[in-house]
Amino acid sequence: MKRRSLYFISPRQVEVREEILPDPAPDEVLVETHCSAISPGTEMLVYRGEFPDLPVDLKIESLSGDFSYPLCYGYSCVGRIIAVGSPVNQEWLDRLVFAFQPHCTHFLARVESLLPVPEGMEPERATFLPNMETAVNLVQDAAPILGERAMVFGQGVVGLLTASLLKEFPLETLVTADRYRLRREASLGAGVKACLDPGDSSFRSFAKSLLSPDADFSIELSGSPAALNDAISLTGFSGRIIIGSWYGNKNNPIDLGGSFHRSRIKLISSQVSSISPEMSGRWDKARRFKAAWNSLNRIRPEKWITHRFSLEHAQEAYRLIDETPEETIQVLLTYS
């Protein structure tokens, strides 16, 4: 059969290619994609050509290889199994599943690499699973304590999910920041105390007045290395800064002079591919996925879907996110 797949072919250029898809191997299933989510973080680095010279992903088979054009990339597909290899349990047939899979109309996979979508969950909600798993990981790495003051930089999808999870903790204060009004409004809708514009001249002083006067921990999710300087300024003595952004090849001077040297602030790199060594004796990926699925049903993030594009109009979707990000939160690709 034939399928259509999305390829990144050069900076800011994508195209949909028709390909021949072989029949499933005996241990494989064939999935027809219902919808897939565009990552406005990592995926836009690929779109802009801002990726470093690294493997795409060492743990996900469908994302093997290096960051170089032409490249199939994406990691949030939800679809239905329409055919199974002969040894595969027939109960998988017609199951709605999630896959860490690049954008395409159909794909082959072993069932071990698929995650069944919980009964009753809509496909669009399920596309938020990777970002929710990331948010769960960030909160676990932050390890909030009752009564702490927290600051989250960046209120894109991951930032909103992280803030929503933190809102469930008995924190004293939760303040967020984002450049775009649409995302600030969404953050306020999630119940944070305030969502500030980091571009305002009074940003740091106003944030300090809300945090009274510093954050016990900050989480940096803006994608801008410059935000680390704000985080350092607003995090108190012996506080912790959890860095969830992947900056690609972007650089910015970081102010490690001044008060930082005496502040004992901890800079913590947080990335969802692994589990913190302190937790790995009790937590594994399966347990974290369960926490992420449950969190999706509590938070219902599909309310943050701002645009839907057919696969054939993917170039328009990426251009929108790239050129007018202030109009978007989550953009989906749909398949017919």
Can you name the CATH architecture of the largest domain? Alpha-Beta Complex
Stretches where pLDDT falls below 50 for ≥5 residues? none
Helix content: 25-40%
What percent strand? 25-35%
The counted number of beta strands is 15
Overall mean pLDDT stands at: 93
Fourth CATH level, the homologous superfamily of the largest domain: Medium-chain alcohol dehydrogenases, catalytic domain
CATH fold title of the largest domain: Quinone Oxidoreductase, Chain A, domain 1
Number of domains: 2
What does this structure look like?
27% of the residues lie in helices and 27% in strands. By secondary structure, it is α/β, with parallel strands linked by helices. The chain has 2 domains: 2-127 and 300-334, Medium-chain alcohol dehydrogenases, catalytic domain (Quinone Oxidoreductase, Chain A, domain 1); 136-269, Rossmann fold (3-Layer(aba) Sandwich). Helix 3 crosses helix 4 and helix 3 (129-142) packs across helix 9 (285-299). It is globular, with a radius of gyration of 20 Å.
